[in-house]
Amino acid sequence: MDSHDDDLGLFGPDSVTWKVHEEPILIVAGLRSLYLQALHPRAMAGVAQNSSYQADPWGRLVRTAKYVGTTIYGTTRQAEAAGRRLTALHARLRATDPVTGEQFRIDHPDLLRWVHVTEVESFVSTAQRAGLALTGEEIDGYYTEQRRAAALVGLDPTTVPGTADEVDSYYRTIRSELRMTRDAAETALFLTAPPVPWKLSLPLRLSLDFGPARLAYLGVAGTAFGLLPAWARRMYGTLGLPTTALSAELSVRTLRLALGAVPRRYLEGPLYRAAKARAARLTLAA
Question: Domain ER-bound oxygenase mpaB/mpaB'/Rubber oxygenase catalytic, which positions (predicted)?
Answer without folding.
Answer: 18-256
